[in-house]
Amino acid sequence: MENNPVHDLVVIGAGPAALSAAVYTTREDIETLVLEKGVIGGLAAITDSVENYPGFPDGISGLELADRLRAQAERFGTKLEYGDVTKIENGSDVKKAYTADNKEYLAHTLLIATGNNYKRLEAEGEKEYYGKGVHYCATCDGPLYKGKRLVAVGGGNSAAQESLFLAKLVDHIDILIRKDQWRASDILVERIAKTPNITVHFNTEISQIVGEGNFVKRVVAKNNQTNQNVEFATDGVFVFIGLIPNTQFLAGSGIELDERGFVKTNEHLGTNILGIFCAGDVRSGATEQIASAVGEGATAALTIREYLDQVPARKHGDHPHRSMQTDSRTYSAA
Q1: Mean of per-residue pLDDT scores for the chain
Q2: Nearest Cα to 15, choosing from 59, 102, 80?
Q3: Rounded to whole angstroms, how far apart are CA atoms 23 and 18?
Q4: Do 134-239 and 6-118+243-331 fall under one CATH topology?
Q5: pTM of the predicted model, to two decimals?
Q6: Cβ atoms of residues 44 and 50 within 8 Å
């Protein structure tokens, strides 16, 4: 691939952290390519309403926020392509990213900003009825169940928030929690308790999702204290049991991950490999807030700028970047 161009920066993922970084880098003449395998904006794009993002006192839909971030990045020259990165390599001179369609991308720097994905129950019938009664996003699929009965699974803040949203649409929700208490904040638990069409079942775990044809009809669950089975009639199942980092493509890359599979970084968002950075929800210690992800994207961009200023092989444009006087050792977590 002799004619394969070497990009200044390839960003893997196109969520808020990635797009924020791209705004900063392209605005300073750092040639930037963003690769995304799914939805521009990530999980933020499928959030019904974002009410705690600064500057929008009346809230903003996740899709609109994602569209604005994308437009801003493209305004400064960011290139966006769809590509499912399956492997990265730390070459001697440049980094390499490979996609599922056998394309190879070369770059002086990489930014990992792949975010998270929904954790699955791994219950019988879950995969079979995915999208046909089993869902992971209330705002995406909840309106399909107006006036019907649902089962929601999970005991954290997301489960509580999403169930409260669903309760506005459906006749009744049974929330199944495998622990003996909520992990959600007190204010959400109080709101759940005051919502008449929600019933909470503790110590309860789904073992099977049962349907007829293309429709879910009931779930079979077990009380993990008494070992007794219990069934719930339902038109759909919404699973809110957490998120898993999208880091499977990093296997064999040498990038250090924590015990849960999130990317380890230093305070400058550098990984243990020089020239490879990470920002957003995929990063170990991230707060999983859109505003934080945007801030991390900006921070990563500034550090990437300083790193690129010290890359001899890179041809600088007509506008040299200001030095932050950052020691090159801060670029890596090692």
Answers
A1: 91
A2: 80
A3: 9
A4: yes
A5: 0.75
A6: yes
* The CATH classification of domain 134-239, taken from the options 3.10.150.10, 3.40.50.1980, 3.40.50.300, 3.50.50.60: 3.50.50.60
Give the whole-angstrom CA distance, residue 194 versus residue 187: 11
> Would you say residue 317 has pLDDT above 70?
no
Say if CB 309 and CB 144 are below 8 A apart.
no
d(CA 284, CA 287): 9
Q: Dump pLDDT digits (tens) for 26-84.
A: 999 999 999 999 889 988 887 767 878 899 999 888 899 999 999 999 999 999 999 99
Question: Hey, where are the domains in the chain?
Answer: 6-118+243-331, 134-239
Which residues lie closer than 8 Å to 245 by C-beta, 6 or more apart?
114, 115, 116, 257, 260, 261, 262, 263, 281, 282
User: Which strand (E) or helix (H) includes residue 307?
Assistant: helix 290-308
Q: Per-residue pLDDT tens for 123-146?
A: 999 999 998 999 998 877 899 999
Architecture per CATH, domain 6-118+243-331, reads as 3-Layer(bba) Sandwich (3.50)
